[in-house]
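Deliverable D5.2: sample structural annotation.
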Amino acid sequence: MPRKLPPELRDIIAIQSGVIERRQALRLGLDRDQIWNLLRSGRWLALHHGVYATFSGPAPRSAQLWAVVLRAGPGAALSHFTAAEVLGLTTEQSRSVHVTVEETRHPGPIQGAVVHRSRRIETARHPAQLPPRTRVEDTVLDLTQCAPSLDQAFDWLCRAVSRRLTTPERLADSLRARPRARWRADLQVAVTDLAGGIRSLLERRYVTSVERAHGLPPARRQVHTEIGGRSRYVDNLYDEAQLVVELDGQVAHPPEQRWADARRDVEHACAGLLTVRYSWADVTERPCLVAAQVAELLRSRGVPVALRPCGAGCTTARKLPR
């Protein structure tokens, strides 16, 4: 970077990962001829119309993001999948840079970017984080609105809460500000479930397809246990029956994890806790069978259960007591 650049301009360039917008450069001390000479000499490179890299060579990711935000204009903010990337909601890098501008603004096409327009961007944009991006709660709700299914929408909610980037209460507040959101009623129930301790899509499938659908009593979620000086959490605990229902996700556990689970189950058994485990396939493909088995285990341990069919084709009816 040339030493003759004004100090304030150098500071802005450093903050913006080496990227500057033409109007910023003019406001902070350069004239049109100086900008032209920097571009002609190759010391600056045009990334977008009116947006320049003050270095040569490939632009790093941070510079690419700043370049899109500056090209989009005042008030713009990274959003959707790109905001999820910079906020830590995902480790994947979005193919296109997503940016949101005020609904009345039309910045035109931006190479390598997807431009969204919103009347809420002023309140959705984080007040301090750089490069400008939407708040966690607004980012999550934006992603739920472009999710192909309610399950995937719920997965975004889970990620935000399980990674401690926000809370169910904050998500509920943001959802109340979106009366026309797609799946709004379902998302409200999902946020309530998150507040109750559900932390994964599989856990919610268990609650909705096994527990609630068949009239099982509600378990406590993510319950802390301490046995033999070891602190652990169990997915579902039916206190009265001292029954633990653990849920294993779609990805197969490595051998060392399976052995750790087995040791934990034995330690729980020594303390009076019976543990049963169900897979993704069990919960999603055989929920009626799982419900019947859990109901029988609850009854065998002294908890009365009035198991009910989830629908006309429910197979638990074959297992109801005569």
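Annotation notes: Residues 255-270 form the longest helix (16 residues). The chain has a mean pLDDT of 91.
The annotation will be released with the project's public dataset once the embargo ends.
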